[in-house]
Design brief:
The chain is mainly alpha-helical and 99 residues long. The protein has a single domain, classed as Serine Threonine Protein Phosphatase 5, Tetratricopeptide repeat (Alpha Horseshoe), CATH 1.25.40. It contains six helices and no strands. It is globular, with a radius of gyration of 13 Å.
Length: 99
């Protein structure tokens, strides 16, 4: 069996984005989870948080956004303007994360 690599992480992130684009949030989350099982990465956490926000799952959204920001503080600026985070945008927890 071949070990999964950073390239596979990128592939699963792309799959997650594709499923997101198709509106299949469940498969999108699964793909991001596969990416994260290979290597924690800000992109997968950020995008997974966005999907959870669209599903109106506040805690999951904020937890994943927090993990994304811990890995890459540039995710703060993305979240500030990303409409996918509108469900949580006005919450104090969100404001604390992105400021």
């Amino acid at each position: 069996m071949t070990a999964l690599t950073n390239e596979d992480t990128f592939t699963f992130n792309n799959q997650g984005a594709a499923y997101y684009g198709l509106g299949d949030f469940e498969k999108s989350i699964e793909a991001y989870n596969r990416s994260l099982s290979i290597k924690p990465n800000a992109i997968a956490y950020y995008d997974k948080g966005a999907v959870y926000s669209l599903e109106k799952r506040k805690e999951e959204s904020l937890n994943n956004l927090k993990l994304a920001i811990e890995l890459d503080t540039n995710q703060k600026n993305k979240a500030k303007i990303d409409s996918d985070y509108n469900f949580v945008r006005n919450l104090d927890e969100f404001k604390e994360l992105v400021h």
